[in-house]
């Protein structure tokens, strides 16, 4: 039996590739109607939607740059008009702009904060407003990172943004638990996506040696945890972070 009731509306940000793509496909497999958000990769989003529909699921692509408050407001206006509500939000969009601290410019710090933190803030605020107005409750899953739990050299900006997402999620979870809204975080370690291939072979080999399970994770191994936290299987879990890292930070 599917985990989500027919008519469950789920928005996944940054879902045209990588982890977001796997999350969108998994939520749809479990019966949710999935809104596949993308910033500029319309082709990738179209392919995700097609893949979901070809498997008998329901999906639609929706464009918005999550770091732009006005664009996020427009996206939620479209969701309200077209679907009337939102049940699940997965804040997955994220970027890295790695640099050692002493060379880190203000711009790269701002860029990472704008997409990772402000993006999560804008979308969560809009979703919570809709969930409260509709009195439906809901589930929000924010994608952080082990960098936000233990810190990662060369990623002071990214680690700060992901740590902020974890504490932001706890605060919102406390604020809206009484409204039936659960907010949890998933903190992946090294997952096979273009974000990790961008690190290059040498760094990848170094990171591999730190992982007890001896391999990088697959996007689907993150997606199944997100689906768990988005579904009623986790109905008594809120304000928590589940780390998915092959034992890296145990
Ligand atoms: P990815 O680069 O394939 O996915 C990131 C997605 O976010 C892309 O589709 C991108 O277009 C989208 N995006 C970026 N800026 C956006 C914006 N302003 N508005 C809307 N969408 C935007 O990389 P991956 O690995 O799938 O990353 C997904 C999430 O997982 C990110 O939040 C990342 O920080 C996090 N993560 C990834 C890890 C990994 O090892 N791959 C480890 C820990 C966390």
Protein model, in words:
The protein has nine helices and seven strands. It is globular. By secondary structure, the protein is α/β, with parallel strands linked by helices. Helix 1 (18-29) crosses helix 9 (219-230). Bound molecules: 1,4-dihydronicotinamide adenine dinucleotide (NAI). 1,4-dihydronicotinamide adenine dinucleotide (NAI) is lined by residues 13-14, 16-20, 39, 41, 65-67, 92-95, 115, 119, 143, 145, 188, 190-191, 193-196.
Distance between the termini: 34 Å
Q: What compounds sit in this structure?
A: 1,4-dihydronicotinamide adenine dinucleotide
How would a textbook summarize the main sheet?
A: 7 strands, parallel
Strand order of the largest sheet: 3-2-1-4-5-6-7
Summed over residues and divided by their number, the pLDDT gives a mean of 97
Strand content: 15-25%
Radius of gyration: 17 Å
Topology of helices and strands:
Layout: E1 9-12, H1 18-29, E2 33-38, H2 42-54, E3 58-63, H3 69-83, E4 88-91, H4 106-134, E5 138-143, H5 147-150, H6 156-176, E6 181-188, H7 194-197, H8 201-208, H9 219-230, E7 241-244
Bound molecules: 1,4-dihydronicotinamide adenine dinucleotide.
Write a concise synopsis of the structure shown.
The protein has helices spanning 18-29, 42-54, 69-83, 106-134, 147-150, 156-176, 194-197, 201-208, 219-230; strands at residues 9-12, 33-38, 58-63, 88-91, 138-143, 181-188, 241-244.
């Amino acid at each position: 039996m599917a985990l989500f009731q027919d008519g469950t509306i789920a928005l996944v940000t940054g879902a045209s590739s990588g982890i977001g793509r796997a999350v969108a496909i998994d939520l749809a497999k479990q019966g949710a109607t999935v809104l596949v958000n993308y910033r500029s990769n319309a082709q990738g989003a179209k392919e995700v939607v097609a893949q979901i529909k070809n498997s008998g699921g329901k999906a639609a692509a929706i464009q918005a740059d999550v770091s732009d408050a006005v664009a996020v407001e427009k996206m939620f206006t479209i969701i309200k008009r077209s679907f009337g509500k939102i049940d699940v939000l997965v804040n997955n969009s994220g970027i890295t702009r790695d640099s050692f601290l002493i060379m880190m410019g203000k711009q790269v710090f701002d860029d990472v904060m704008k997409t990772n933190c402000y993006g999560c803030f804008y979308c969560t605020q809009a979703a919570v407003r809709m969930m409260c107005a509709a009195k439906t409750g809901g589930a929000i899953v924010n994608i952080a990172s082990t960098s936000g739990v233990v810190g990662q050299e060369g990623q002071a900006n990214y680690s700060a943004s992901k740590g902020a997402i974890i504490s932001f999620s706890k605060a919102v979870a406390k604020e809206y638990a009484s409204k039936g809204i659960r907010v949890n975080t998933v903190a992946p370690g090294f997952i096979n996506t273009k974000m990790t291939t961008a690190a290059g072979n040498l760094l990848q080999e170094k990171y591999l040696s730190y992982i007890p399970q001896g391999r990088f994770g697959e996007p689907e191994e993150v997606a199944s945890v997100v689906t768990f936290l988005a579904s009623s299987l986790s109905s008594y879990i809120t304000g928590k972070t589940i780390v998915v890292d092959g034992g890296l930070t145990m």
